[in-house]
Specification:
The chain is an alpha/beta fold and 251 residues long. It has one domain: 2-enoyl-CoA Hydratase, Chain A, domain 1 (Alpha-Beta Complex). Helix content is 45%, strand content 17%. It has a six-stranded mixed β-sheet, with helices on both faces. A four-stranded mixed β-sheet has the order 4-6-8-9. A hairpin with a 2-residue loop joins strand 1 and strand 2.
Length: 251
């Protein structure tokens, strides 16, 4: 499950679990809770709003809840339903009318890594945790929108970075992920709280700009055109009410 807290213009979306060591698997209930929280944040957005997504413990998210799928009469169909239901979460993040930051406190695997990479900025724990795509090891292909997110967000690392993630299942430490440009920053000092503090500092910087959220969302869609096309997200021209008008030419 997850919770959404609002502090003035800052929204903090937190993946929650019954124990401190919960690995925040993305099952049907959690996915539904995430989507509901993102829709609520979107409806409450004002100029200067920023979203931080985080969790607690040694996991950010360990991906889809495969145990849930295995417990159902048709595990394959259950997994496909999770893949389909998670798709709108990625769409909601890419359409959200505010800057977004993932504060990744620990391990982020498979769908958990895709969740983090769907944010504008990713700050990770440089002292603990790995980022990786586990599908090649457990025998699953990647959904089309997973592939698109990886191609869009792993551009700095280039072909080698993508190959290491998707075809080798390499477990990247925070510093390594930052070095290839997969994430923005690896925070070493302060552990979990240090990551959240840095994310809040970044949120404060972004919030001061008081950008129009509708314009911001459309600019984001244009930047990540491939994944938006795969998700079927339409892009439209938006002019903020505060936008300056061009001076009239004198004849």
């Amino acid at each position: 499950m997850c919770s959404l807290e609002q502090r003035d213009n800052l929204f903090i979306l937190t993946l929650t679990g019954p124990t401190p060591d919960d690995d925040h698997r993305l099952g049907p209930s959690t996915i539904s809770s995430l989507l509901s929280a993102l829709r609520r944040a979107s409806s409450l957005s004002t100029p200067g709003s920023v979203l931080i997504t985080t969790s607690s413990g040694k996991f950010f998210s360990n991906g889809f809840d495969l145990s849930h799928a295995q417990s159902t009469p048709d595990p394959h169909r259950s997994l496909q339903l999770m893949v389909q239901s998670f798709r709108p979460v990625v769409s909601a993040l890419l359409s959200l009318p505010m800057p977004t930051i993932a504060a990744v406190n620990g391990h982020a695997a498979a769908a958990g890594l895709i969740l983090a990479l769907s944010h504008d900025y990713v700050v990770v724990n440089g002292a603990r945790g790995f980022l990786y795509m586990s599908e090649v090891d457990i025998g699953l292909t990647l959904p089309d929108y997973f592939e698109a997110v990886l191609r869009e967000k792993a551009r700095v690392g280039g072909r080698k970075g993508l190959r290491e993630l998707a075809l080798w299942g390499t477990r990247l430490k925070g510093a390594d992920a930052a070095e290839i440009g997969l994430v923005d920053e690896a925070v070493v000092a302060g552990g979990e709280e240090g990551v959240k503090k840095r994310a809040e500092e970044k949120a404060a910087e972004l919030g001061k700009r008081k950008w129009d959220g509708r314009v911001y969302a459309e600019l984001r869609k244009g930047l990540y055109k491939e994944v938006c096309d795969v998700l079927g997200l339409e892009r439209r021209a938006v002019v903020a009410a505060t936008a300056p008008t061009a001076p009239r030419s004198k004849i």
